[in-house]
């Protein structure tokens, strides 16, 4: 069994969120998204970024300050190399009514983002619409049935288990095929990946 599989149950109990269980129109209101077609305006996005912090996940290691001199060695650890490969660099987002490419760290809840094949999902999100048979690789999180076929539930609310909800994508997953438009519901350490890294920091010194 993969190491990550052992963490799924306790993480799911802490992570499971109401944002996945309500219809999209209600969700937009909760996220402060008045116009999903135009996306957030820059002023609102900046206010959310200042409130919630950068969309970055804390690495899955404990690194006391006195170990700073060992940083080059730490960077060579397999779990850190994997972490670095999973970190999204940029994201396509709709803001002020136009699509733009931004640093993935600047994403906020309520952002409308666009996913495409061979890209890393930059934040936890719910699918609004998709095409070309959207499939997402979640093998880092789930050793069983790691490839998920995703699609929008439209205006319906979810009834599936967290791990099998077809319109839910987790940060650091990789899009295999297809394209999608989605709304960001969690960022940074509040994402599923963030919770997983937290548990790994609790369980090991490094």
Automatic annotation (TrEMBL):
It is a multi-pass membrane protein. This is P-type ATPase A domain-containing protein. Transmembrane segments: none annotated. It comes from Blastocystis sp. subtype 1 (strain ATCC 50177 / NandII). Its main location: membrane. It is found in: Cell membrane. One of its GO terms (cellular component) is plasma membrane. One of its GO terms (molecular function) is P-type sodium:potassium-exchanging transporter activity. Residues 86-194 form the P-type ATPase A domain. SUPFAM superfamilies: Calcium ATPase, transduction domain A. It comes from the Eukaryota. One of its GO terms (biological process) is intracellular potassium ion homeostasis. Pfam families: E1-E2_ATPase (PF00122). Keywords: Cell membrane, Membrane.
């Amino acid at each position: 069994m993969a190491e990550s599989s052992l963490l799924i149950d306790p993480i799911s109990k802490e992570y499971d969120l109401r944002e996945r269980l309500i219809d999209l129109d209600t969700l937009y209101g909760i996220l402060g998204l008045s116009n999903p077609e135009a996306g957030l305006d820059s002023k609102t996005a900046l206010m959310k970024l200042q409130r919630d912090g950068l969309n970055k996940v804390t690495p899955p290691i404990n690194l006391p300050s006195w170990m700073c001199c060992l940083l080059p060695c730490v960077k060579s650890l397999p779990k850190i190399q994997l972490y670095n490969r999973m970190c999204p660099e940029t994201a396509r987002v709709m803001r002020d009514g136009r699509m733009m490419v931004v640093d993935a760290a600047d994403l906020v809840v309520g952002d409308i983002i666009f996913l495409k094949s061979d890209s890393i999902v930059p934040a936890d999100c719910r699918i609004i619409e998709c095409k070309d048979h959207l499939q997402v690789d979640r093998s880092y999180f789930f050793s069983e049935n790691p490839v998920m076929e995703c699609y929008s539930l439209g205006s319906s609310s979810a009834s599936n288990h967290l791990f099998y909800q077809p319109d839910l994508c987790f940060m650091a997953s990789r899009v295999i095929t297809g394209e999608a438009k989605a709304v960001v519901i969690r960022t940074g350490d509040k994402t599923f990946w963030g919770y997983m890294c937290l548990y790994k920091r609790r369980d090991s010194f490094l």
